[in-house]
Automatic annotation (TrEMBL):
The record marks 78 as: Lowers pKa of active site Tyr. GO terms for molecular function: oxidoreductase activity, acting on the CH-OH group of donors, NAD or NADP as acceptor. Keywords: NADP, Oxidoreductase. InterPro entries: AKR, AKR5G, Aldo/ket_reductase_CS, NAD(P)_OxRdtase_dom_sf, NADP_OxRdtase_dom. The active site is at residue 53. Substrate binds at residue 111. This is Aldo/keto reductase. The keyword Kinase does not apply. It comes from the Bacteria. Belongs to the aldo/keto reductase family. Residues 24-262 form the NADP-dependent oxidoreductase domain.
Length: 275
């Protein structure tokens, strides 16, 4: 098993790679293009972008230049908060697709649970899904309360919930709820901001497997059945991050990493985020 062949199966039967490349803060143009091309060369088949990253055009260009068949790739983008609402979300989707140069998207996410708007936004995603323009739809940064509210009116259950997840932020209740509902959890910022690399527990486990701290953390994501999308524009790190399918963590090592939890966020809290 490797980055090209390791897939989770979503609740609608669509296969989603366990590992993807995140391109948050990668500059549009040469920087994001090269990162995506190098990732695809390294075996990545999933690329995660968003309208608010302002690099969809570069991602689309890289997809064309990669030489890999479109059906082998899994492309995700997200509708930003300013575009939430039914009609505006449909317009935002068309804009994203024009920038990406794609006919069909693999996964479209509601980026944040904007109060008073996320339900109408979800109806737009359901419309796109029913029309065959998107293979899977989901949400990002939704807590249990948001999911419960959404499911009151949703015709289609989200296939994915992309959340901040790393050993300092376990989100156990949210992950348990998603599992019960058949919603695949996906991690953003799985490597924190790199400060966790110096943690003695992480270093000890990395040394035991002759792996880097980043590889151990990404493997920990997989052990928790969480799709992971580490961001990098550096070729060596992109390659390093893909080499997580040739070892496993022991239950004791997983427990030790879990015990690092501090409920510490590096990004905004969905409950208090100023939309």
């Amino acid at each position: 098993m490797n980055a090209s062949t390791a897939y989770a199966t979503l609740n609608n039967g669509v296969k989603m790679p366990w590992l993807g490349l995140g391109v948050y803060k990668a500059e549009d143009g040469a920087e994001v293009e090269q990162a995506v091309i190098k990732a695809i060369e390294a075996g990545y088949r999933s690329i995660d972008t968003a309208a608010v990253y302002y690099n969809e055009e570069g991602v689309g260009s890289a997809i064309k230049k990669s030489g890999v068949a479109r059906e082998e790739l899994f492309i995700t983008t997200k509708v930003w908060n300013d575009d939430q609402g039914y009609e505006s979300a449909l317009r935002a989707f068309d804009q994203s697709m024009n920038k990406l140069g794609l006919d069909v998207l693999d996964l479209y996410l509601v980026h944040w649970p904007v109060e008073g708007k996320f339900k109408d936004t979800w109806k737009a995603l359901e419309t796109l899904y029913k029309a065959g323009k998107v293979r899977a739809i989901g949400v990002s940064n939704f807590n249990v309360t948001h999911l419960e509210e959404l499911l009151k009116t949703a015709e289609i259950k989200p296939m994915v919930n992309q959340i901040e997840f790393h050993p300092y932020l376990l989100q156990e209740d949210l992950r348990k709820y998603c599992k019960e509902q058949g919603i695949q959890v996906e991690a953003w910022r799985p490597l924190t901001k790199g400060d966790i690399f110096s943690n003695p527990t992480v270093q000890e486990i990395a040394n035991a497997h002759n792996k880097t701290p980043a590889q151990v953390l990404l493997r920990w994501n997989i052990e928790h059945e969480v799709v992971t999308i580490p961001k990098s524009v550096t070729e060596s790190r992109i390659i390093e991050n893909s080499q997580i399918f040739d070892f496993e963590l022991t239950q004791e090592e997983i427990r030790k990493l879990d015990e690092l939890n501090e409920d510490k966020r590096y990004g905004p809290d969905p409950e208090t985020f100023d939309f």
